[in-house]
Structure formats: structure tokens, C-alpha cells
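Quick check before the chapter quiz. The format below is the same one you will see on the exam, so make sure you can read both the input and the output lines.
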Amino acid sequence: MPQLFSKRQLFFKLALSVIFLLTLVFYYNAWQNLSTLSIFVGAYFLGVILLFLDEQYLYSLYAEKIDYTEQRSSHYPQLISRNFLFLLCLPLLSIFVFTSSGSLFGIALILSLNFYLLVEMWQLHQEFLLFKDRFLDGVKVDFTAKLVRQICYGVTAYFIVLLLVLIF
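Here is the expected output.
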């Protein structure tokens, strides 16, 4: 399978996720309670690792073999964690976890999933055909660079709302 992201881009996603985690830890003074900190950091890294492993290795466990005679715009695998249905359910799950569950583990996991996917969307926003194949496969809409940019802005606004829900 061809690699969609370079090693530098993968490192950027992972480094930005760690920086975001450190920002959250310092904002909430989380180092004062080590058990809570370890749960939060562990769950956050679990989310990042799950998305990273799905992209690099796990897809081969559930993906069908690519038929190269099929006319697709790319030969990248369809990942469950970047599937359109998953992306539609993630905001609903996120709002539930943030407002109703009270689970620190769940909050950290959901934050990491949302942030990692947000960074990945912005990395692909200029390549709108790859963006469509990656996140919106099966959606019957003519995609343009402007529409992809609007989707990225919408996802960023959604993420900011999630952070506001978390703060208040």
C-alpha cells in the first residue's frame, strides 16, 4: 500500500497531539493528582495510538483486498476510523461523553480522536480528491477545494465547541 503521509507529516501529527495533551495537563493543573493524570494521559495516548495503528497496520485485518481493476481515484485503503459514518457518529458520541458520562478516560480518548482527525483533515485540505477518498468516500457530492476548506473550518469550530463544553 502506498503511504499517504510522509514520516515528517506523521511526526507532525503525533507531536501536535503531544503538545495539545501537555496544554491540557498544564491548563487543568493535572500533575497535582498523579492517578488522575496517569488515567488521562494513558487514555489520550490510547486514542492517538489507535488512530495511528489503524492507518499503519490494523486496516489489513478488516480491509478487503483492493481490486486494481476497479476505477477509484486512489488505492488507499478505506479506514474504519476515517469512514464517513464514523465521522458522523463521533460528534454525537463526543457530546455524550463530555456532558453525560463524566468519565475521565472517555473524555481523554474522545479528545485525542477528535484532535488527531482534525490535524489530519487540515493536512489533506489542499488535496481535495485525497480528502474525499479519505474522509468522505461514498458521499455523492461534487467536491471542490472551497467545500473541503469549509468542512475543515466547520470541524475546527466543532472542536472549539467541544473544548468550550469541557471548560464549562
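If your answer matched, good. Residues 7-167 form one domain.
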